[in-house]
C-alpha cells in the first residue's frame, strides 16, 4: 500500500531527458530536442556538443560539462550516473545533452539503467548519429541497391580489438561505419584485412562532419592508417568501409585523394 509520504516523494521527483544533440550543426537538432533544451532546469553536457547548440540554452540555466577525451574522462561514467540521479532527486528536470544519438555509442543505455534503478523517470530524445551526418557531408549513401544492403556500426576504441571477429562486418554488399577509430586506424585496417576484407576495399574518412572545416577523404583499406597519418586526421571523425564509398556524389570533396587510391589499386 502506497503511503502519503511515497506520493509526496513521487510528486517532488525530477526527471532526466537524455537528448541527442546530433552531429554538430544546430540545424540538425530535432524540434523535440530544441524544445527540451529550452525547458531543462539544469544541463549536463558532453564535450562533443557544439558551442552553437550550447548557446541555445537559456543563459540562466546552470550547466555542467562532463567532457570526455581519449584516455581521460573529466568525470568517470559512474560519476556522471550519480550526478544525474542526484540532481533529479532534488526535483529538477535534468537535460542530459549528448552528441549524436544517446543510444549509439553515447552510453545512454548505462545512464538510463542507473536512473531507472534509482526510481528516476527517464525520457529519450533521439538525435542524428555521426554516421548519418558523415554520410550527408560526403553525399555518400550508406546503403545502395547495387552496392550495399547492410550497415554495421562499430566502435574503434573497443577493448580486445585483436580478439574480435570482424569477418562478416565488411565486404561485398556491406558497409562498415567505424566510430572513434582515428587513433587505431592502422590496427583496424590490419584487423579487417586479416579477417578477409580485401586490401583494395574503398574507405572514406569524414572529419568534423556538419561542422565548419569538415573534410571527406577517400583511399583504400590498405592505406587507412597512412591516410590518417598523412592528412593528420583528428577526432571527431568517422571511417566508412565499403563499396558505397565509390558511390559518393561529392567528387569535389573526395577527389583530392582519389589519385592516391588509384595508385594503390
Describe this structure in words.
This protein has two domains: 4-128, Cobalt-precorrin-4 Transmethylase, domain 1 (3-Layer(aba) Sandwich); 131-264, Methyltransferase, Cobalt-precorrin-4 Transmethylase, Domain 2. The protein is built from ten helices and twelve strands. It has helices spanning 4-12, 31-39, 51-54, 77-89, 108-117, 130-137, 185-194, 224-231, 251-254, 258-264, and strands at 15-20, 42-45, 63-65, 68-69, 72-73, 93-98, 121-125, 148-155, 173-179, 202-207, 215-220, 237-241. The strands form three sheets. It has a five-stranded parallel sheet with strand order 3-2-6-1-7, with helices on both faces. It has a five-stranded mixed sheet with strand order 8-9-12-10-11, sandwiched between helices. Helix 3 (51-54) links the parallel strand 2 (42-45) and strand 3. Helix 4 packs across helix 5 (108-117) and helix 7 (185-194) runs antiparallel to helix 8. The longest helix has 13 residues, at 77-89. The N and C termini lie far apart (72 Å).
Amino acid at each position: 500500500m502506497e503511503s502519503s509520504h511515497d506520493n509526496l516523494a513521487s510528486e517532488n521527483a525530477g526527471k532526466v531527458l537524455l537528448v541527442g544533440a546530433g552531429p554538430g550543426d544546430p540545424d540538425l537538432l530535432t524540434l523535440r530536442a530544441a524544445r527540451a533544451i529550452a525547458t531543462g532546469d539544469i544541463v549536463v553536457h558532453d564535450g562533443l556538443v557544439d558551442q552553437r547548440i550550447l548557446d541555445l540554452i537559456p543563459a540562466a540555466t546552470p550547466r555542467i560539462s562532463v567532457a570526455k577525451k581519449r584516455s581521460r574522462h573529466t568525470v568517470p561514467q559512474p560519476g556522471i550516473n550519480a550526478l544525474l540521479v542526484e540532481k533529479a532527486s532534488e526535483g529538477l528536470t535534468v537535460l542530459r545533452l549528448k552528441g549524436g544519438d544517446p543510444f549509439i555509442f553515447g552510453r545512454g543505455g548505462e545512464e538510463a539503467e542507473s536512473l531507472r534503478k534509482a526510481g528516476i523517470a527517464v525520457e529519450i530524445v533521439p538525435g542524428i548519429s555521426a554516421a548519418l551526418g558523415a554520410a550527408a557531408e560526403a553525399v555518400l549513401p550508406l546503403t545502395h541497391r547495387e552496392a550495399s544492403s547492410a550497415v554495421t556500426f562499430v566502435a574503434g576504441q573497443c577493448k580486445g580489438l585483436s580478439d574480435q571477429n570482424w569477418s562478416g562486418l565488411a565486404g561485398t554488399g556491406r558497409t562498415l561505419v567505424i566510430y572513434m577509430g582515428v587513433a587505431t586506424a592502422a590496427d583496424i585496417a590490419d584487423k579487417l584485412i586479416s579477417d578477409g576484407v580485401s586490401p583494395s576495399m574503398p574507405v572514406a574518412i569524414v572529419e568534423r562532419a556538419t561542422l565548419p572545416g569538415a573534410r571527406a577523404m577517400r583511399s583504400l583499406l590498405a592505406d587507412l592508417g597512412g591516410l590518417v597519418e598523412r592528412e593528420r586526421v583528428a577526432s571527431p571523425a568517422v571511417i566508412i568501409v565499403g563499396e558505397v564509398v565509390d558511390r559518393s556524389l561529392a567528387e569535389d570533396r573526395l577527389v583530392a585523394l582519389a589519385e592516391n587510391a588509384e595508385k594503390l589499386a
